[in-house]
Design goal:
The structure holds 3 protein chains of 3 kinds.
Chain A: E1 2-4, H1 6-18, E2 22-29, E3 32-37, E4 48-53, E5 56-61, H2 78-81, E6 85-94, E7 97-102, E8 110-115, H3 117-129, H4 138-144, E9 148-152, H5 163-166, E10 178-184, E11 189-195, H6 198-205, E12 210-211, H7 214-230, H8 240-245, H9 252-257, H10 265-269, E13 276-282, E14 288-295, E15 305-306, E16 309-310, H11 315-334, H12 344-348, H13 355-365
Chain B: H1 8-20, E1 28-37, E2 42-49, E3 64-69, E4 73-78, E5 89-94, H2 98-103, E6 111-118, E7 131-137, H3 141-153, E8 161-167, H4 176-185, E9 189-194, E10 204-205, H5 209-213, E11 222-227, H6 230-242, E12 250-253, E13 269-270, E14 273-274, E15 281-283, H7 284-287
Parallel strand pairs in B: 7-8, 7-11, 8-9, 9-10, 11-12
Antiparallel strand pairs in B: 1-2, 1-6, 2-5, 3-4, 3-6, 12-15, 13-14
Chain C: H1 4-10, H2 19-25, E1 29-34, E2 39-41, E3 49-63, E4 69-76, E5 80-81, E6 95-108, H3 109-118, H4 120-146
Antiparallel strand pairs in C: 1-6, 2-6, 3-4, 3-5, 3-6
Chain lengths: ~375, ~300, ~150
């Protein structure tokens, strides 16, 4: 465990840039803390936090100048690893013949600065999703394998957070290149730093960091414990797969349906949702066509449309599909839950539907 | 895209793809050799490979391709030809939407782009030594035809063979000439029925489950392969179960909306199953639990 | 308390059944009420009873998968709901959902089958009436199948 101050942290980011990484980190934009391209430490949302609740997100000024004092951003790192729109190939048609040209992708080297433990867990989950079965998604893997991850352990938690229930935080245990915990008080401001990989060790070599002393380490631990105590929600995950599979016909889904707008917000902000659709576009002459991959959502009305009809039209069935997939079928498909407890779906639902409440209600109403 | 180690159920599929060695999101090209209408709204196309990578195209009975109609989109269509042939394939397509409409306009010499073969296959190897009961409804005979070809090619390996086929009207029956040949040449019991007909039809009228009812099956020694509209499959499976067939002896081919066809886009899910990757051919016990739930 | 014998007699299905036989089956009868949108039974469930509908309306439906919810028949005042209780394996083939609040007499299948074993003549009288209903339903279904309004 090392200790690093704000200036050296700034230098660390510059070293990453020198090594060819594009920095992606939190910054203030559109009244929110969002993950976007940043130039250095000065772009971070110094002294800002967010207040989240069911259907609510507000920025709030902190009393101190913490760099990572917010909870989480509306969207996750998913939009960089799995871009919302991506061209896959182009095709040309002349007379009877046809030719296909795959799209070229530049090798990206992204450094994610400020990854929360729950978000890191979400990345592991998507690693499994895109490498499951006989095929691998090389579009995802090409970006992912060149990613440098600087994770930041949470020192506060939001009203909608439940990472402890999902066993995904607040402290990141593995999978990062560098992990930081911010300690800030009236007297001092520093970060304890852990490396998690050879890449991480390489980067900090030039900084010649001191080892953290016992006091600094215990301050950092206390800061993380603060997050544990502030955890806003909880979810009982015992036998949760059977709970959902055995209650597919529960009247509760009718009740949720009366509130759910099927607006797809939850799937867009969720860091593990992976559904996409394929769009084929052509020019008016029919000589040129291209294929795009674009995010989709199981809440979209035409998601289950086939030539003979549509397998899932009612809002009730679509909500049930999303929550059952996230918490139950995901376990059969990928071996883990699909939910990391980040609470984004609760924050960004316009009517404040709460996934943890729905589980509680289902346990209360269950058949067996 | 790369091919990785996978579980035995998909192993054969992966091996088939390895032989063809391509990126499954990028289509390769084939040329239309022949197109012809089977019925008023069902047509078949015969294809020959153009790109080098697919000169050795091979598939297992029950697998499907994504057929690309230029600028319009893709449709998931089962391969309906003889799986022992290498390179050339046929598809039998129901013209029912925008993409299939465009595909129906293909002419001899046109190029078409294809991704595949994808999905699981009929248990033609696992079913050796047993009686086979093939139940098809409407267009459902097309995904089963490669299975029939394979079984008839190795006729001696199987016991009694029943092919039960139902369609809406006599005009909707597919492969009528072949059905007759199978019956005559190969010691196969072929029964055909239609839901409704006029007096020019001399065959059976009644739904396809009535054909199952009339069979004297040896339930412990029979493998059933069912394909057709899902509601039809439900009724047929109920009938087969009534006849005493164990759940694990029944196989069916399912259908859902497909976009990527390789298990990533999520559209084809039936709770935990990806129809494109874990199916489309399933052993009924894999889907039995959810098969009758509304809108899953 | 309502005299169920009178109610049974007043229902068209049993209106011409001898008092003697009404007396035998009244022990298997019970007043029931179902609210709008309630399911009286679901496809696949054990068919334990059948219902003489006094008032209300019920829809028989099946899960049409991609075709959505398919309603095959509606049953209303003065009609009967369900005959699967009398034919093995005693399982419902459709869902029955209430469209308008239903008041009905439920007759327990097992109770009746026992009584039929004891008194076959009673069984014969009931089966005669059921056969009529079955024939009507079959004819109606065949005509529905003909699809007389189909656009050519």
């Amino acid at each position: 465990m090392k200790v690093i101050d704000k200036d050296n942290l700034g230098r660390l980011l510059q070293i990453l840039k020198e090594k060819g990484y594009d920095l992606i980190g939190p910054a203030l934009k559109d009244n929110a803390v969002i993950y976007t391209e940043i130039n250095g430490i000065d772009d971070l949302p110094v002294g800002w936090t967010d207040e989240q609740d069911a259907g609510k997100y507000r920025l709030k000024k902190r009393k101190d100048n913490a760099l990572f004092g917010y909870v989480n951003s509306p969207q996750s790192w998913k939009r960089f690893l799995f871009p919302p729109r991506l061209k896959l190939w182009e095709a040309g048609k002349k007379g009877k013949s046809l030719d296909i040209k795959p799209a070229l992708f530049k090798t990206s080297k992204l450094a994610f600065i400020g990854v929360r433990s729950c978000e890191l867990s979400a990345i592991f989950i998507q690693d499994k999703v895109f490498n499951n079965g006989p095929f691998s998604d090389s579009y995802y893997n090409n970006i992912r394998q060149n990613c440098f991850i600087v994770s930041v352990n949470c020192t506060t938690a939001g009203k909608n957070c439940f990472c402890i229930s999902m066993k995904t935080g607040p402290k990141a245990k593995r999978g990062f290149d560098i992990s930081l915990t911010e300690v800030i008080s009236e007297k001092e401001h520093y970060f304890t730093l852990e490396t998690g990989s050879k890449k991480g060790e390489e980067i900090i070599k030039a900084l010649d960091l001191k080892d953290a002393n016992e006091g600094e380490i215990s301050q950092a631990e206390r800061a993380v414990q603060n997050a544990e105590t502030k955890m806003g929600k909880q979810m009982d995950t015992a036998d949760i797969k059977e709970l959902f599979y055995n209650n597919l016909e529960s009247p509760q889904w009718n009740e949720v349906a009366s509130r759910c707008l099927t607006c797809t917000n939850c799937t867009m902000v969720c860091p593990t949702c992976f559904c996409f659709t394929i769009e084929d576009v052509t020019d008016l002459r029919g000589e040129y066509a291209s294929r795009m991959r674009r995010w989709d959502s199981c809440f979209a009305l035409d998601y289950s449309k086939v030539a003979g009809g549509n397998f899932r039209t009612s809002p009730k069935a679509r909500y049930r599909q999303w929550i059952t997939h996230k918490l139950a079928s995901w376990i059969d498909q990928f071996g883990t839950s699909g939910c990391v407890g980040c609470g984004r779906c609760i924050t960004w639902c316009p009517v404040g539907i709460d996934i943890t409440e729905e589980v509680k209600k289902l346990r209360g109403n269950k058949k067996t | 895209m790369c091919i990785k180690g996978c579980d035995p159920w998909n192993k054969l599929q992966a091996e088939t793809m390895m032989q063809n060695s391509f990126d499954p999101m990028i289509p390769f090209r084939m040329r239309v050799m022949k197109t012809f209408w089977e019925t008023e709204d069902v047509f078949s196309i015969d294809l020959q490979p153009v790109d080098e990578a697919v000169k050795t195209f091979q598939f297992q009975p029950g697998q499907f391709n994504m057929l690309y109609a230029f600028g319009a989109g893709e449709a998931a269509i089962s391969i309906s030809s003889d799986s022992s042939k290498i390179g050339s394939i046929s598809h039998t397509i129901h013209k029912v939407g925008y993409v299939t409409g465009k595909l129906s306009q293909l002419k001899k010499g046109d190029m078409v782009a294809i991704r595949g073969p994808f999905g699981s296959h009929w248990p033609v190897d696992e079913a050796t030594g047993k009686d086979i009961c093939i139940v098809a409804g409407g267009i459902g005979l097309a995904p089963l035809r490669p299975s029939v070809y394979h079984i008839l090619k190795h006729r001696k390996k199987y016991g009694r063979i029943f092919i039960l086929y139902g369609a809406r009207t006599p005009g909707d029956l597919l492969f009528r000439v072949e059905l007759e040949q199978w019956s005559k040449k190969h010691n196969v019991d072929v029964e055909v029925t239609v839901d409704r007909a006029d007096s020019t039809w001399r065959g059976q009228v009644g739904i396809v489950t009535t054909l199952i009812e009339l069979l004297k099956l040896d339930p412990q020694n029979t493998v059933a392969m069912v394909c057709g509209p899902e509601l039809m499959m439900k009724f047929c499976i109920d009938e087969l179960l009534d006849k005493g067939l164990p759940i694990s002896s029944i196989y069916l081919s399912m259908e859902r909306n497909m976009k990527c066809a390789i298990g990533f886009c999520g559209h084809c899910q039936l709770l935990p199953r990806f129809i494109c990757k874990d199916g489309p051919v399933f052993n009924f016990k894999q889907v039995e639990k959810f098969f009758n739930v509304w809108e899953v | 308390m309502e005299d169920l014998s009178k109610v049974l007699h007043s229902h068209p299905f049993l209106s011409d059944l001898d008092d003697h036989y009404i007396g035998q089956i009244v022990g298997c009868a019970q007043n029931v009420v179902f609210r709008e949108n309630e399911y009286i039974f679901r496809e696949g469930e054990e068919a334990k009873r059948f219902y003489l509908i006094r008032t209300g309306k019920i829809a028989l439906e099946i899960n049409g998968r991609e075709k959505g919810r398919i309603r095959v028949l509606t049953i209303g005042t003065g009609q009967i709901l369900g005959w699967s209780w009398i034919i093995l394996p005693y399982r419902w083939h459709f869902d029955a959902q209430v469209l308008e609040n239903v008041r009905a007499i439920a007759l327990d299948g097992e109770c009746l089958r026992k009584k039929f074993d004891e008194e076959p003549r009673l069984g014969y009288e009931m089966l005669k009436r059921f056969s009529q209903i079955l024939e009507q339903r079959l004819n109606v279904t065949r005509i529905q199948l003909i699809d007389v309004y189909k656009r050519v």
